[in-house]
UniProtKB/TrEMBL annotation:
Pfam families named among the record's database cross-references: LAGLIDADG_3 (PF14528)
Lineage: unclassified sequences, metagenomes, ecological metagenomes
Residue span(s) of domain DOD-type homing endonuclease: 121-281
PROSITE patterns the record matches: INTEIN_ENDONUCLEASE
Designated name of the protein: DOD-type homing endonuclease domain-containing protein
Any one GO BP annotation for this protein: intein-mediated protein splicing
Spans traversing the lipid bilayer: none
Species whose genome carries this gene: marine sediment metagenome
GO terms assigned for molecular function: endonuclease activity
Amino acid sequence: MSNGEFKNIEELKVGEKVLSPQQNGSYLFAKIKKICCWYSLENYDVFELRRNKKKLYSCSYNHLIPVNYRRKNGRLSIRHITARNYSRYGKAGFKLKATSNSCFPIPNFENRKNCKIEPYSLGVWLGDGHFRRSRIFHTISESFRRRGHNKKIKNEKIVYERSRDLGITTMDEEIINEVSKFYKYRRINQKKGGNLAKTYRYSPHKDFGSILSKYGIEGKGSGEKFIPKEALLSDIEYRKRLLAGLIDTDGYLSKGDGYSITTKSKKLAEDIYFLIHTLGGRGNIRKIKKGIKKLNFVGTYYDISFYLGKIDIPILLKRKQRDNKFFYLSANRRCIDVRSTKPGMVYGIDISGESKWYVTDNFMVTHNSSFSIQVARRYLEKFFGTPHDSFD
């Protein structure tokens, strides 16, 4: 939707607005003019043409797929090919040369204001920060396996009274110097055992602590962290600084100029995935197992690998900056495959604007014009006598 939220296509209403990418890379907040649903006997699934064969969406045979194709003269042009016709091309020829687009960088969402947390600082905290609550409850049976102080019994539970604690742990002064432009730390604790990292502690009651608490971040451990919705739906410059903070702390730069971030929080992984695509990049989430041999520990983590192409992210650490010498292709292009699938109900919308494009929940740019609606009208009127104005 134009406000950045996703909605099932069968729940859309005439007059609502969707984000509509245009061929020049801009966006319109396009109104939905018509909606239809019909039973299609010939449907197709659209997949990524890569090893994991990720399914992107399903559509009817007449659905128009926007395709980038390079002509003999070297110029890149956009063609609209029906799902039926696309499925007839061989994988070794046209499908390897043609690409479909995921969403272009989204400048802003309709009626959204920027999050009040400074974006780079938020990204740094999500990567290397902690914010402990004052009270932690454990059942009595668990208390024998845990340490704490000021123990109290309350409703058959042990209460550990601990002071609230907010901090960021890093060995990179560039990171903390940038955060300090907005939030001043109170003290520094040096890690023991030759560890170069330091923990910079902040007041949990003022400035950084109070604003993080306002957005529900206090008390979230490594497996519970998330990006506030207001931050994900802020303008593009805010989102770039947010991603820069995440990369400077938890990001890994690969040889192919791609990045990866590993987190214990599934929600944070999904939020980063959303963030990357709204900036015009593309990414993938993998569930992985990681362990610590000394502790005999194995846990579930989520690895987000992503590619940003020429998108400029204000990363501070030189070792994590791309050299910008070569980029494979635009970050929002993907090779796709189209395969026949079973019959079923399909939904079509007709929107205002020149391109007739909109963005799916997989961030793919796709097309639904009045062509699909006109076919549906003829089909339903012929076989079921559906009145013309049921689509309006």
